[in-house]
Amino acid sequence: MKLLDEPLPTAEGIEYSGEGGRSVLPWPQIELALTAEVGEPEGVRTIVFDFIVAREGGRCQVRRMDADPGEDAMELARVLGDNLGPDCTTASIKSVATDGIASRWYPDIESFELDSLHSLNLMD
């Protein structure tokens, strides 16, 4: 998993900072986008977006970004839905786009990652 530094959705994909300057994760390279709310309901929370960019030989590459619950997350989820389409987005992304809250919730990032691996059939 690689956290995208200073991500910015653009017409071409998700632009982010890297070692050699700004790079772009093109929309067509994203096979699937997953999201969930992570954190305690009465504490610090974030909406985590994971992008599956390759699933060769049972291995996947994941790029991650996050957004604050509410308007920031809603705007990002709408952009993802518009650019990735229904085959690459999950119901939780649609939920975030509608009301800023993910339909999936986990108390910590490890729980989200484990459940995501199971849902992608990457673990027994």
Largest sheet composition: 5 strands, mixed
Number of H- or I-type helical stretches = 3
- Please state the average pLDDT score: 88
* Spatial ordering of strands, largest sheet: 1-7-6-5-8
User: What is the beta-strand fraction?
Assistant: 35-45%
Q: How far is the N terminus from the C terminus?
A: 20 Å
Secondary-structure content class: alpha/beta
Radius of gyration: 14 Å
- Low-pLDDT regions: none
Main attributes of the structure:
124 residues, alpha/beta, five-stranded mixed beta sheet, three-stranded antiparallel beta sheet, 3 helices, 8 strands
Walk me through the structure:
This protein has 124 residues and is an alpha/beta fold. It has one domain (30-119). The protein has three helices and eight strands, in the order E-E-E-E-E-E-E-H-H-E-H. It has helices spanning 71-84, 91-99, 109-119, and strands at residues 2-3, 5-9, 13-18, 21-26, 32-39, 45-56, 59-67, 105-106. The strands form two sheets. The protein has a five-stranded mixed β-sheet. A three-stranded antiparallel β-sheet has the order 2-3-4, with helices on one face. Strand 3 and strand 4 (21-26) form a beta hairpin. The longest helix has 14 residues, at 71-84. The mean pLDDT is 88.
